[in-house]
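Researcher: Please predict.
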Amino acid sequence: MTGWLLGTLLATSGLILLVLLIREPVRSRFGSRVAYGLWLIPAARLLMPTMTETVERTVPAATPVLPLVRPVGGEPMLLSNVAAPAPTLIEQLGGWPTVLLTLWLGVAIGIFLSRISAFLRDRRAILARGMEIGRIGAIRIVRSDEVSSPVAFGIVDRVIAVPAGFERLYNERERRFALDHELAHHRSGDLVANVFAFVLLCLQWFNPLAWVAHAAFRFDQEAACDARVLDKARADDRAGYGRAIAKAASGRALLFASALDRRNTLHRRLRSMLNSTSAGTRAAGRVMIMAAVAVALPLTATRAVEYIDVPAAPASPALAAAPKTVAVPLTPGVLAVPAAAPAVAIPSAVPVPPTPPAHSHPGVNIDRDTVTINGRTRRWEELSPMEKQEIRRELAEAREELARTRIDRAEIERDVREALEEAKLDREELRRDLAETKIEMDQAMREIDANAAHIRRAGHNPETIKAQVRASLKAVEAIDIEAIRRQALASVDPARIAASVAAAEASVAQAQAEIDRLEERLDDD
């Protein structure tokens, strides 16, 4: 918002300065009506929105990172000792941008309300002391003591007010010219243009160039209205029309009205009436203005670049690279873009029997000729009956644990077969899911195009949403089902499993032989 305001202020100031410089040469060449039309250029620029260019840029796919330390939020004692800084007065009011924006709009609204209040007060006074003396279509003609020259005002209730001595001060031809001038203001929409121009002036109340431009605009409006009347009059009527506007130059005017009463511009208006142009010249001037608007608006428009981050395609078709769901916050009845297909669930490995437990007690270590009990090493012959009984108990416990350790090759082979069958089923299911996802994403693209107007009204950019859908579709198409299957089944290797089973069986046999040897040694003793 701030960027648009600043860009619009600079652009319109430049265009206003351009109009102020060229309006007199244009008036001399193409006439006052074309010079009045030049003000369309800065007015159109004020209504020009920001031209946003959408640029897609590829960013690396997001990878979750685990924190290495606990967050500060987990330390309430630490946080309790840290006091947040007290906000300043400007921060409490919303910051400098909010303060300046409020000041700008407050002054603009104040100026507008004060001036429109004054206009409504003058209008009430004119009508309260006036009397309707005629009508021209829907326009009332009112005689009032509150005006000293003819004046046109009112957009809905249109009025032309004339002074109390109108018939006495103006002859018949001069009265006709004065009324024609005010009627031309009503019929050409000049009064609506006055309101619009003053609103724009209030919005740029801080810009001195805007006040100069508003005065120049009102003069060009009057000169253009003079030209409209004289274009329909005879050549010998110019003198009578000049006398009419000279008599009407009282120096007082209503803000939103159009009147023949500006003394300081009377000489310039009389001089501009001497310049007559043909219809073809005026048409060429209008074409020139339209061309200038078409060129000036794009050249001076505020520009912005909206970047759309498109995640890069994964380097390898890993399961974790499947794209997330694209949530489209639209109005009810508008689509929600589907997620990518689910990953295949394949066992990472087949269970292998554990290594059998050691036969020695933490406090007993048995060697071929010696025994270490509670840190003391002694020969077999030196053991007491109680110590030999303790060794027998430890050997019995080891044999029981060894008996509980079973290696069932059939069960292991069955697990491997089930894992392979499950992988095959999941692979087919994944293929179906990916095909359905592509169809749903194509449908989503069509629905985004069909609901583009609703999406924009909801405050979103359809092109941004479509770029996210395209990125999701690209990631889905990059998934290699066979590679996923090979990677998931890498751990289900029959040769490796057979080697693990053989090693476990050898360990069990070795433990059994060691227990048998120790029991024989104890029996011999």
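Model: The first strand starts at residue 51 and ends at 59.
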